[in-house]
Amino acid sequence: MLHKIINLTVRDVRFPTSVEQHGSDAMHTDPDYSAAYVVLDTDRGLRGFGLTFTLGKGTEIVVCAVEALAALVVGKSLQEIVSDFRGFYRLLTSDGQMRWLGPEKGVTHLATAAVLNAVWDLWARSEGKPLWKLLVDMVSHRKFRSKVCVQDVITISCSVCVSSGSRDQMQKEGYPAYTTSCAWLGYPDQQLKQLCTDALKSGWTKFKVKVGADLEDDIRRCRLIRQMIGPNNTLMIDANQRWDVAEAISWVSRLSEFKPLWIEEPTSPDDILGHAAISKALAPLGIGVATGEQCHNRVMFKQFLQASALQFVQIDSCRLGSVNENLAVLLMAHKFQVPVCPHAGGVGLCELVQHLILFDYICVSASLDSRMCEYVDHLHKHFTSPVVIQDAHYMPPKDPGYSCEMLEASVQKHQYPEGDVWKLHMNK
Ligand SMILES: C[C@H](O)[C@@H](O)[C@@H](O)[C@H](O)C(=O)O
Ligand SMILES: [Mg+2]
């Protein structure tokens, strides 16, 4: 445990996913999946790897923010950090000069996530366990309260951490997943059909379709997918914040014939009461509201839950302040009995969030009812411990850590702007 952190490096790693429209939606029409990629070196040679997900040019700003936080981490030992993790979380989020940029939102919060993800990775590696198991063991050994929880959560954690889902079941069957990879907005119908055919063959039963730019296109695409997947498989739709409240209600009502389970991010992610109004209007149609990938922090989630403004909580491993803040949201969702269906549409997000949802099942919710974790099939080959999907389920990771170490060769190739991939791209 006495691993002293002696260095932090952060690199701007970008993948040109926009070229083939992977990841495209109604608001992000040219997304290059990217990461501010953090490595922590310790005096005893152990390293921690972390990242936060961003898109293209935005990465350079996040990288600057991580550099600004580095001095708060370098020089500390892992022991010092985890024995007062709450204090360390506050140190990062409450710096007297930097908190003005947030607090706990936007670029500084994404940077906090990147740094803390690397600390959690380091901790799990130092214990020789995958992160989900580190968390599960902590709860079973009751170390949880003193070490991890954010103050506001301590009280509820004591009362809700009584559930227990079967670890064995997860090891055998895995955690149910849905796929977004068949129907990004920029894919032509032919591609959509082909991908959907392939996905059905591989055992996928839950599909998310991007909507929101053009109603006639949405009707055609949803009809196509619904016809292909049949009435019994699950369809979700995602508008990535494209509409105002009234427009969201009328647009989704027009798509209701395709029986989507949820409409995701129908409007501004900050409009809690707007989401509540949409939830209320769509409930009679049997359509829920899902959101979270751009929900700033646990305080916003608290209000979404209090206002009955969402029916599916989409935690994000890189938007919130790492495991610390995500645990708070898992516990609150459990208290309000709202299912958690994590967001994972980005580079590295599947690798990270699988750990959190396994913990949620084993220690918090103990339920798979209306629950599933997003999966996108891009870029996993760049990770040293990529996700394992079997029969549309996430199989629990076995390697020690938080699964977000990238292959050094991939990092070098994709580093912006000097990596070979970008040199080639710019010369085109
Ligand atoms: C730009 C990204 O691909 C988003 O479209 C993606 O995160 C999406 O909202 C999702 O739910 O996966
Ligand atoms: Mg989404």
UniProtKB/TrEMBL annotation:
One of its GO terms (biological process) is carbohydrate catabolic process. Residues 189-285 form the Mandelate racemase/muconate lactonizing enzyme C-terminal domain. Its EC number is 4.2.1.68. Keywords: Lyase, Magnesium, Metal-binding. One of its GO terms (molecular function) is L-fuconate dehydratase activity. Its cofactor is Mg(2+). It catalyses: L-fuconate = 2-dehydro-3-deoxy-L-fuconate + H2O. It comes from the Eukaryota. InterPro entries: Enolase-like_C_sf, Enolase-like_N, Enolase_C-like, L-fuconate_dehydratase, Mandel_Rmase/mucon_lact_enz_CS, Mandelate_racemase_C, Mandelate_racemase_N_dom, RHMD-like. Belongs to the mandelate racemase/muconate lactonizing enzyme family. ENOSF1 subfamily. This is Mitochondrial enolase superfamily member 1. It comes from Lates calcarifer (Barramundi).
